[in-house]
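User: I'm writing a tutorial on reading structure tokens. Could you give me a worked example: one chain, its sequence, then its tokens, then a sentence or two explaining what the tokens reveal?
Assistant: Sure. Here is the example chain.
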Amino acid sequence: MAVFLSSFVNRLDKKGRVSVPASFRAALGVDASGIVIFRSLQHEALDGCSIGHLELLSQSLEKQDLAPDVYELIETTIFGGSVQLPFDGEGRITLPHSLAASVGINEEIAFVGRRKTFQLWDPKKLAAHDAASRSAARAKDISLSKIIAAAAKFENGGF
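And here are its predicted structure tokens:
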């Protein structure tokens, strides 16, 4: 499965339409007719994914023994708050004003790849979040080589 990579800033037109980056549409696959978005549970942003990813989440929930209140929270916030947005003929979506306003998106949208999902941010808020994230990553001494080494150690039974 393809992954969502990179960041792009696109303009929102007066009708609330915005072009989804071509590489994101490609990651969704040729059969994808649109995206699903919902308010992030962690950030002042919107989370986006394919309908297939939400189906995977639903199947994953069925395999877990979660407390009823946790199911309720997930179903209300993610599934109940999700909106399916079809692509038009030019690869654009129409972003509902209420969702855009809820996270401060006005004229421009930053699309941010997050491997299997992506986010939609107000570009100024994203810049602040990115700076804070990079600072936190440095403080925790996170690096690609350490992640790869830890994965290799795990695959070898911890040796």
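What the tokens reveal: The longest helix spans residues 123-139. The mean pLDDT is 93.
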